[in-house]
Amino acid sequence: MITIKDIAKIAGVSHTTVSRALNGNPLIKPDTRERIMRIAADMNYVPNYSAKNLVTRKSNTIGLFFSSINQGTSASFLVDAVKGISQVLDENYLLTVSGIDSIAHLEAIHPRRYDGILVMSQSDMDNGFIYHVKSSGIPLVVLSRHLDDPAITNVAADDRKGVKAAVDYAYEMGHRKMALIEGKSGFKSSSERKHGYLDSLMSHGLGLDPQYFASGDYSIESGYSAMMRLLELPVRPTAVFCCNDDMAIGAMNACFDNGVSIPGDMSLIGFDDIMFAQYTNPSLTTVRKPVAEIGIEGTKLLLHLMEHPDAPPVQRLTETELIPRRSVAAPLQS
Length: 334
Known about the structure:
Structural class: alpha/beta
Shape: elongated
Helix content: 25-40%
Radius of gyration: 25 Å
Oligomer: single chain
Distance between the termini: 76 Å
Mean pLDDT: 91
Strand content: 15-25%
Low-confidence stretches: none
Number of strands: 12
Order of helices and strands: HHHHEHEEHEEHEHEHEHEEHEE
């Protein structure tokens, strides 16, 4: 196995100079660094990160934790989050992905194992884990769910405002009978999106019909089942807001199976703007939540915290965006 001492012999410099050059130390002259890097490449040098970590006391591991991998986290949400984070982390870091609900013992989460932790939080039930990480001294950034604690760095989207804009849009198109397919019970995003729906109805003086609230759990299957229940009502809604795009896709399939035309008989709105939303038939009107951008911003803040542990915490709320497509039209009758 090639070592930095082998490279030093060929380059005619000390092994300290080689180490500094390979780690980008600005004290090494550019031409010397380039020569050493070229020699290392020619010799197929592979850094020994395990030995390096013993010296630096770093694991070079970033932990990404979701509330749950198996329940309430859609594949598209997970992929977008990882995609954003991976754009910031270089090859020196290993990113591990886990569900908080799968952790048997919090003692396994400690600074020797993680250099930093990102929590893509969806539920208040994550707080025990979050405060364990904080008390352990591991640099921490919480994403997706807005926290009331200003002592924790936090990046989230304004889901409530985004949903209100979407339901306002349906109202402006002439809809007055608007139903809601709710997200997973206990998730903060479900509560925020439901409040956005209620904000819009109340701002327009529309009454709340209990029949127009259908439970879901963010899965395609739950969207299908919820829409089937809404289609059985004696007076159907003319528009349905689904708390994520996966449920909207399930709801769209329920309408198709029952001969209900979208948007002719029923208008449909989702949330997230997953990749498939623009390719459904008809294409899905939805609210774009910038999950990848939240991941990018959160990872930059985490790396800054890792370098500057005393940096003050940051709280950022990003904007959502309504994406009108072909799944919403004026109702045939209000």
